[in-house]
Amino acid sequence: MDTSTYQDLSGRLARLELQTGQRDQSGLSLAAQVSNLQGKVESLYRSNAELQTLERIIETVRDPKKHIPEIKNRNVDVSETEKQELLLAKFPAIREAYANLAELSTLDIPAISAEAVDKVDLASVKAREDAIEKIMKAYHMMVVKNSIVFEKYMALMERENEFWVDVEKKFNSMRMRLDGLENKEIMDRRV
After folding, report:
1. In a domain, 41, yes or no
2. What is the pLDDT along the chain (191 residues), one digit of tens a residue?
C-alpha cells in the first residue's frame, strides 16, 4: 500500500471516528444510539425467549458445520472467576440438559409381571425373537443418537456463548474508544 492510499484511509478513519462521537439532532452520539439499541435488543430477547430459539435454528441452517463438537486443549489454565462466569452463563443450558437427561433416564423398559409371563406363549415369542431384537437395537440406537444430539447441542451452546462474550468485548472496546474520542473532542473544543 502506498503512502497516499494509507493517508487517505487514515484520514477517512479519523473523520469517521469524529463523526461517531458527534451528537446529532436527537442530542445523542452514535455510540450512545448504538448502546440504546443494544439495550432494546437485549430486553426484546429477554421478553421473547423464542427469538433465541429461532436464532439458533437460523444459525444451524446457515452453517451446520458449527454443530460438530470441537476438541479443546485441556491443558489451558483457567481462573476460578472465568470458570464461575462460564458456569453462570451456561446455567440455563445446563439446567435444560439435566432435565433432558432425567427424561432420557426414565425411558427404561418396564419390568414384566409374573402373571404376564405366564400368559405369554413362548413359542410365539421365540418366533418373533428377530423382530424383538431389531426393535431393541433400534431403541439403543435412538438412545445413542439422542446422546450425540445432546452433545452437539451443548457444543452449540458453548460456541454461542463464546460468540456473545466476544461481541460484548469488542463492543466494550469500541465504546471505550468512542468515549475517548468524545472526551478528546470536548477537550479540543474547550481549548
Report:
1. no
2. 678 888 888 888 788 777 777 677 777 777 778 888 888 888 877 777 767 776 776 676 666 555 544 445 555 677 888 878 877 788 887 887 777 777 766 665 556 666 666 777 777 777 788 888 888 888 888 888 888 888 889 999 999 999 999 999 999 999 999 999 999 988 888 87
Tally of domains within the chain? 1
* Burial of 38 (C-beta count, 10 Å sphere; 0-12/13-18/19+): middle
- Dig out the grid coordinates for 111 from the structure: 419390568
Q: Could you give the CA distance from residue 159 to residue 156 in angstroms, rounded to a whole number? A: 5
Give the integer Cα–Cα distance in Å for 5 and 11: 10
Residue 32 falls within a domain, yes or no?
A: no
Tell me, yes or no, whether 48 lies in a domain.
no
